[in-house]
Design brief:
alpha+beta; two-stranded antiparallel sheet; binds iron/sulfur cluster; 4-stranded antiparallel beta sheet
Length: about 325
């Protein structure tokens, strides 16, 4: 499949609503506001593209692993959470560091950070009363994700969503055992909040031209889950590795995207000028290829071992430039 040969199936296109997904996403809107549900609505009936969302599940990937992974994830999500301990206990920085280090070593999650919750991250119509959000990252196996857009790539995404569900529940259960209310949130359904801004605030890297996060350790090759809590955990700081500038001079994902959905320039979306993928162009291909993920796999930052080296190089260049300033 090349970008010039992709033609969406007419039976899929017949299901699209009159409204553009870009309009729902707030493309061109100057006002900073909560996001609206556009896809992966918690119920397809909640979104204008609900019939298209139902159609996604009719595409047979031809791999048994999809059903297995979906069932495993459902069992994880359906299991009861640890009962809330009666009295909240103070969680020190050292307690949290020791818990997260053990979780990283055990592979419960591959990255973790904490941000103060910003109500604008909640979807329109959703109220979230928690003060903090813990964000976790789950690294794709590069060899498997590189098979995208073949179904094996999508299966790797499913595996990481299953790990993401388990990771969020592990963190929520630990917090609940300390006496702090905690609510796990996990994809692929939209849930209550958009996770990318929370991940940016939690030190997960920067937004790439392909509209996904890039972090030096994993590039774009990871999934997220989150836990909402009132436990006063140590907050992480946002990071700047110069990835945003790097994207200005790179067009690997733009060239690789089969339906040409990735724009060369940033755009205004709900009051913020940022990288944005054309929803209406991406979705038909995404739907016919089990979630696609080509842009995540081809990003140079996603190649094993490359991201940290690139980050070091950009940091050295930045330091050199700072020294050259009069
Ligand atoms: S996921 Fe969407 S934006 Fe990314 S390569 Fe596929 S079609 Fe393009
Ligand atoms: S492929 Fe290049 S332009 Fe696209 S997100 Fe990655 S670094 Fe940025």
């Amino acid at each position: 499949m090349t970008r010039s040969t992709f033609k969406p199936r007419p039976e899929q296109m017949a299901l699209y609503p009159d409204v553009s997904g870009n309009t729902i996403n707030g493309l061109g809107d100057a006002e900073r506001r909560q996001p609206s549900y556009v896809y992966w609505g918690n119920s397809p009936d909640d979104v204008a593209h609900g019939d298209v969302q139902r159609w996604f599940y009719t595409v047979d990937p031809g791999l048994d692993g999809y059903g297995v992974e979906r069932a495993r994830r459902a069992a994880i999500i359906d299991a009861p959470l640890t009962p809330l301990a009666e009295t909240p206990r103070a969680v020190t920085e050292a307690d949290f560091a020791s818990f997260t280090q053990a979780g990283l070593e055990a592979g419960d999650f591959d990255k973790i950070g904490v941000a103060a919750f910003d109500p604008v991250w909640a979807f329109e119509g959703v109220e979230i009363g928690f003060k903090h959000v813990v964000v976790m990252g789950f690294h794709h196996d590069f060899e498997e994700i590189s098979k995208a857009p073949a179904p094996e790539g999508g299966l790797e995404v499913m595996r990481q969503y299953r790990r993401a569900a388990q990771g969020a529940i592990t963190v929520a259960n630990w917090l609940r055992a300390q006496g702090w209310e905690a609510e796990p949130l996990t994809g692929p359904m939209s849930g209550k909040m958009t996770m990318i801004p929370a991940a940016l605030a939690s030190g997960f890297g920067e937004l790439g031209k392909h509209g996904s996060l890039i972090t030096p350790e994993f590039g774009s090759s990871f999934r997220l889950s989150a836990v909402l809590t009132d436990c006063p955990l140590p907050l992480s700081a946002p990071v700047d590795h110069g990835i945003d500038d790097f994207c200005l001079n790179c067009r690997v994902c733009e060239d690789a995207c089969p339906p040409e959905a990735i724009a060369p320039n940033k755009q205004l979306v709900r009051g913020e000028v940022k990288w944005y993928v054309d929803f209406d162009k991406c979705l038909p291909f995404f739907n016919e290829h089990q979630g696609c993920a080509v842009c995540l796999a081809v990003c140079p930052w996603s190649r094993p071992g490359v991201g940290p080296r690139l980050a070091d190089k950009l940091e050295r260049r930045r330091s050199r430039k700072a020294l050259e300033q009069p």
